[in-house]
Amino acid sequence: QVQLVESGGGLVQAGGSLRLSCAASGRTFSSYSMGWFRQAPGKEREFVAAISWSTGNTYYADSAKGRFTISRDNAKNTVYLQMNSLKPEDTAVYYCAASSAVAQLAYSYPYHTWGQGTQVTVSS
Q1: Distance between CA 86 and CA 18 in Å, rounded?
Q2: Cys-Cys with 77: which of 21, 24, 28, 45 at CB 3.0–4.6 Å?
Q3: CA–CA distance from 70 to each of 42, 62, 67, 83 (Å)?
Q4: Comparing C-alpha atoms, which of 46, 24, 23 is closest to residue 94?
Q5: Would you place residue 27 in the very low, low, confident or very high pLDDT band (cuts 50, 70, 90)?
Q6: Which pLDDT tens digit goes with each residue over 68-104?
Q7: Is the confidence at residue 1, as pLDDT, over 90?
Q8: Measuring CA to CA, which residue among 12, 10, 9 is closest to residue 85?
Q9: Taking Cα atoms as reference points, which of 118, 92, 84, 103 lies closest to residue 9?
Q10: Are 83 and 18 in contact (CB under 8 A)?
Q11: Read out DSSP for the chain?
């Protein structure tokens, strides 16, 4: 079973950038589609971005398009979320997740393993 550990969160001013990393244990990382989700205080968890293990296709929430980029390095068992032009409304705990699926990656249910989350705070 894969285990996930996020890092890279922190406090940044609006307009700044952060790169989140999610390191996975195990030998089969390349066989997992990976997603990033976030949850702000008092709000439900929402999809941010995902990358398919089979095609490398990427998917983004409308709020992330043009500002965030998901990528993966299978040799390092790591998935990244590059976040640019950050806004105060991006403030949330960001979670990475692993799925064996290649479809419906914008939904929570295909993901079987979740990290503990990393806090991102964007000040105005």
Answers
A1: 8
A2: 24
A3: 26, 14, 10, 9
A4: 46
A5: confident
A6: 999 999 999 999 999 999 999 999 999 999 999 989 9
A7: no
A8: 12
A9: 118
A10: yes
A11: ---EEEE--EEEETT--EEEEEEE-SS-GGGSEEEEEEE-TTS--EEEEEE-TTT--EEE-TTTTTTEEEEEETTTTEEEEEE-S--GGG-EEEEEEEES-SS-TTSSTTEEEE---EEEEEE-
Specify the pLDDT at position 3.
94
Count of beta carbons in the 10 Å neighbourhood of residue 123: 11
Token pair 């991102």 in the structure block, residue? 120
Q: What mean pLDDT value characterizes the chain?
A: 96
The token pair at 40 is: 């702000």
The CA distance from 91 to 67, in Å, is 14
Structure-token pair, residue 1: 């079973």
